[in-house]
Each structure stands twice: as structure tokens, then as C-alpha cells.
Amino acid sequence: MTHDRNGSHLQIGQYNLLRVMRSNKSGLFLEGPRNEEVFLPKKEIPRDLDAKPGDLLELFVYTDGKGRFVGTTHKPYATVGQFVDLEVIEINDIGIFLNWGLPKDLMLPFSEEVGTLYKGDFAVVYLYLDRLNRITATMKYEGHLDQTPFPYQEGEPVNLVVADKTGMGFKVIIEHAHWGLIHKNEVFMDLHIGDEVEGFIKRIREDGKIDVSLQPTQSSARSDLENRILAMLEEKDGVLLVSDKSDPELIHETFGVSKSNFKKATGALYKEGKILIEPYQITLIGFEG
């Protein structure tokens, strides 16, 4: 959730902390950082909210058809500057309308459409402000990605939105800001366009492209997996019916990692003398229940 933290001006398409100024039968009127007036309709006011002048409320702010600032207590599926997978709920002569969690639907102009959408389809879109400060969706990502230097370190956990599937793997959007690629040999779980998942920076290449993994690749991450294996062995009286020869699906179901990373972790524990690896189970050495 993004907030207006610096108080410099009203953030359209974001959450803002606003001060209640007055009320009437239609709703509440609140003041922005530069004395902007934001209207919160009566139907948006929770029944248990007894707001008085001077109180602070956190609202998501957008503009209505006349350009006036309107607040809502509803939480949209995304804010301006983010990518999100949304359903098409109406198409008319004006444009394509998407369900984004607010009573007022989000418009995707025909000029911002890629391919052909139909009612009921889902599309990964980016939210931006048009020249009239209206929150708008686009499927044309390029002007909104890779516009800033990479702030990432290899091994760093990041949020991903799956944007496309190619012959090489899945193209993903990293932290709503940069393109990345999960190579197909790195995919050990079902992925679909629009999924939001956690990933890890695997490599920043010399050509500026970023390879991403769905699981940690650093030794510290493997140590965490080793600790989880030991903890589960303790819980299961020193024996787990999963081993190096188990099916990858069983390993992923049990620990949420690939067979390769599981083997690395069990191998490290074996070398440390902590476990015994058998064909279809691992045993905690020296376990005393």
C-alpha cells in the first residue's frame, strides 16, 4: 500500500491521510496537504465511523467526471504506478472497463489495448494518470518499465507479476519497475499470466537484463531450508518419508522448493553428520524423542 508520506501535495491514485473539515447530508469534506478539498460520499462512510472536524482519515483518492477530488474507503486491487491482473467486465463505445475493486470501474482506452479483449478476459495492466489526472489502465508497458537504475542485489527477495510466457520461460515485472525473466528450467510450480509471486534476483547480466528465480539461491537461503528440514524431523520423531530419490512433486509439496535445492540442503546436513540419507527417507542422527 502506497501512502502520501511527504505531505507535499495530494497524491491521486494513492492513499492519503486527510483532515476532516466539515460534513453535510451528502458526506464529508476533507482537506489535503495544500488545502485541496476531497469529498467522501456518505455511502462510503462506514457505519461505525464517527468522524468529526479535525479527525484524520486515510482514503484512496481519485477524480470524478468533473475533475473533482473524491475519496473512498474501499481498497482498489492496485494503485497508480503498479501492475495488476484485472477482469474485463464491460466493453462499450467509450472503452474497456475493468474491475479493480472500486464501485467506479477502471477504464482501459482502446488505444492502450494490446490484442483483442472480450468480456470476462483478464489482462495485466499498468495504472497511470492521464493528462486530465484520471486513473487509467494500459497494456503498453514499455514506457513504464526499466526507467530507473536497478536497486537490486543478487539473492534479494522481490515481488513479481507474471506478464508473459515465451519460449525461454516467463517474463515477469519486478517490483512494478523492471523486466525480469524466469528461465523455464527454473519453473517448478504452476505459473499463469497475472500471478503475483515472490522471487529472488538470480543474476544481473552484463546486457542489463535480470534473471529471476522462484526460490533462494544463496547459501544463507539454503541454511534456512536446512533449519526447516531439521525442525520437521524433530516434529516427526526423527524420520521424514522424503529423500533425494523422492518425486519432485512430493518435495515441493513438503518444503516448497525444487528437488535440486532439497538435495543441496540434505547433502549439507549429511556432511555435517546431522542426518542419514536413505533411499526413501531421511533420519535425524541422535534423535531422542
How would you describe this structure to a colleague?
This protein has helices spanning 219-235, 248-255, 259-271; strands at residues 15-24, 27-31, 37-41, 56-63, 69-72, 83-91, 96-99, 106-108, 122-129, 135-138, 157-165, 169-174, 178-183, 196-204, 210-213, 239-240, 275-278, 281-284. With 289 residues, it is mainly beta. The protein has 4 domains: 15-72, Beta Barrel (OB fold (Dihydrolipoamide Acetyltransferase, E2P)), CATH 2.40.50.140; 83-142, Nucleic acid-binding proteins (OB fold (Dihydrolipoamide Acetyltransferase, E2P)), CATH 2.40.50; 157-213, Nucleic acid-binding proteins (OB fold (Dihydrolipoamide Acetyltransferase, E2P)), CATH 2.40.50.140; 219-284, Winged helix-like DNA-binding domain superfamily/Winged helix DNA-binding domain (Arc Repressor Mutant, subunit A), CATH 1.10.10.10. A hairpin with a 2-residue loop joins strand 1 and strand 2 (27-31). The model is unreliable at 1-7 (pLDDT under 50).
